[in-house]
Design goal:
Length: 448
C-alpha cells in the first residue's frame, strides 16, 4: 500500500537503486535544510537585537557584496575539485564557523547578552552574512550535484521526493533548534548544534558516493565538446542566454516580493517581542508552519501539477497565488496576515516552484548547471533581496516625511504595486522558458 501511495504521488521509479539514490539525496538535503532553517530564525532574531531591525535592508545589500566574493571562490573550487570534495570542504568550513560564532555570541560584551543595539557591532553583521551565505553556497551546490546524477524523467520522480525530505528537515530544524526547547539562556549554543548538522551533510555525501551504483550517475548527454572556461563564463552564459535569464527572472520575482513582505512581518515581530529569546522562538514557529505547509503539499501530490499538467502549469501556479497574497496583505497589513502570507509564499515555493526550477537545469551544460546557476542564485536570490530591500528602505523616510499612518500607507501601495508588476513579468516569462525546456527534453538536446 505504501509503495502504491508513493508511486501515485511521485510516479513509478525504475529500480530499487533509483529509489535508494533519491532517498539518500533526500536525507542529505533534509539534514542541510534542517540546519539552515534552524539558523534562519536566529539570523533575524540575533541581528535585530544586536544591530537593530531597521538595518536589515542594509544587511541584505552587504550580504550580496560579500557573497559575490564567496561565489568566486566557489567557482574556483568547482574547477579544481570533484563536486563531492567541494561538499566536504564547504561543510567543514561552515561547521567550524558555526562553532566560532557560538563562542563569540555567548560573550557578555560582544554577544547576545549585550542588549544595546548599535550598527557598529560588527559581530551582528558578520553573523547575518554567514547565515545568508549558507543558502547561497550549499543549496545550489546540492541541486547542481543532484542534476548531475539525474535525467529529466528520473528528476520528475526523484526531485519531489527530495523536496519532501527537505520539508521534513524544514519542520524538524526550527522546531528542535530553539533555546527555549533545549533549556539555554540564549540562542548562542544552538548555533553550535546547527554546525554539527552541517558537518553531517558532508558525511552523508561521502556515504552517497560509496553506495550509489555507477549506473545511477547519468547526466543529460552533451551534443558538443565542452571547454573549461573561467568562472566568469557563468556570468557570460547568464547574460547572453534567454533561457537562463528566464530562470533568473523567476528567482528575482519570488525573492523580491517575499523580501518586501517578510521585512514588514519581522518589523512587526520586533515591535511585539523585544527579547531575543522570545523573538527567535516566535520566528521559528513560523518556520515550522512553512515546513508543514510544504511537507503536506508534497505528500498529497501537489507536485503532480508539473508531472501531469506540464512545466508551464507548474511555473505559473505560484505567481498567481502570490498575487492574491499581495492584494490581501495590501488591504490587511497586520502581523498575522503578513506572517501567514510569507508562510504561504515560502511553503508553496518549496512544494511547487523549487522542484520545477531545479528541473530546468537538466537540459543544460555542466557550466550552466554549476557556474551559471551559481550566478543566478547570487543575483536572482541575494540580488533580488537587495531589490526588495530598496523598496523596504522607503518605509522609514516616508514615515518621517508624511507621518506614520500616511507614510505606512504610501509604503504599502508602492510595495504592493511593485510586487504585482514583478509577478506579472514572471507569468509572461514562464511561457517562454517552459516552451524551450519541453523542446529540449523532446529532442534530447541541451539548451545552453
Amino acid at each position: 500500500m505504501i509503495k502504491q501511495f508513493f508511486a501515485k504521488v511521485f510516479g513509478k521509479f525504475e529500480s530499487r537503486e533509483e529509489i535508494r539514490k533519491y532517498a539518500l539525496l533526500g536525507i542529505t538535503f533534509g539534514v542541510l535544510i534542517a540546519a539552515y532553517w534552524g539558523l534562519r530564525p536566529l539570523k533575524d532574531g540575533i541581528f535585530s537585537g544586536i544591530v537593530g531591525v531597521d538595518y536589515t535592508p542594509y544587511a541584505k545589500f552587504l550580504s550580496l557584496i560579500t557573497v559575490l566574493f564567496l561565489i568566486g571562490i566557489y567557482g574556483k573550487l568547482i574547477d579544481w575539485l570533484p563536486r563531492h570534495k567541494v561538499f566536504y570542504l564547504l561543510t567543514g568550513f561552515y561547521a567550524l564557523s558555526a562553532i566560532v560564532f557560538a563562542i563569540m555570541l555567548s560573550n557578555p560584551v560582544y554577544g547576545i547578552p549585550n542588549t544595546v543595539e548599535s550598527p557598529t557591532r560588527i559581530i551582528g553583521w558578520l553573523w547575518y552574512i554567514f547565515v545568508e551565505s549558507i543558502g547561497t553556497m550549499m543549496v545550489p551546490l546540492f541541486w547542481a550535484f543532484a542534476a548531475d546524477v539525474s535525467t529529466a524523467s528520473s528528476a520528475r520522480r526523484g526531485f519531489p521526493l527530495i523536496m519532501l525530505c527537505a520539508q521534513f528537515g524544514n519542520i524538524v530544524g526550527p522546531w528542535f533548534l530553539r533555546a527555549t526547547r533545549l533549556g539555554f539562556k540564549n540562542s548562542a549554543p544552538v548555533i553550535a548544534i546547527g554546525g554539527v548538522l552541517i558537518l553531517i551533510v558532508g558525511v552523508l555525501i561521502w556515504v552517497f558516493m560509496r553506495v550509489t551504483p555507477k549506473s545511477e550517475f547519468h547526466p543529460v548527454k552533451k551534443t558538443t565538446e565542452e571547454k573549461k572556461p573561467g568562472f566568469l563564463e557563468g556570468l557570460k552564459l547568464l547574460v547572453t542566454n534567454t533561457y537562463l535569464l528566464g530562470i533568473f527572472v523567476f528567482l528575482l520575482a519570488f525573492e523580491s516580493v517575499t523580501t518586501i513582505i517578510d521585512f514588514y512581518f519581522k518589523f512587526k515581530v520586533k515591535m511585539q517581542f523585544p527579547d531575543e529569546l522570545m523573538r527567535s522562538d516566535y520566528l521559528a514557529t513560523f518556520a515550522v508552519i512553512t515546513g508543514l505547509l510544504s511537507f503536506f503539499s508534497l505528500l498529497f501530490g501537489i507536485s503532480n501539477i508539473q508531472r501531469k499538467l506540464g512545466m508551464r502549469a507548474s511555473l505559473v501556479t505560484l505567481p498567481l497565488l502570490m498575487a492574491a497574497g499581495v492584494v490581501i496583505w495590501w488591504f490587511y497589513p497586520t502581523l498575522l496576515v503578513a506572517g501567514f502570507v510569507v508562510v504561504g509564499f515560502k511553503g508553496l515555493n518549496y512544494a511547487i516552484n523549487q522542484p520545477s526550477i531545479k528541473q530546468l537545469y537538466i537540459p543544460t551544460s555542466e557550466d550552466a548547471r554549476y557556474k551559471a546557476q551559481a550566478w543566478i542564485e547570487v543575483f536572482g536570490n541575494r540580488g533580488s533581496k537587495s531589490m526588495g530591500s530598496t523598496v523596504n528602505a522607503l518605509k522609514l523616510p516616508l514615515s518621517k516625511a508624511y507621518g506614520s499612518v500616511t507614510g505606512l500607507a504610501m509604503y504599502l501601495s508602492i510595495a504592493s504595486i511593485a510586487s504585482l508588476g514583478l509577478l506579472g513579468l514572471w507569468v509572461a516569462v514562464a511561457f517562454f522558458v517552459s516552451a524551450k525546456y519541453n523542446k529540449a527534453i523532446e529532442e534530447n538536446k541541451v539548451v545552453c
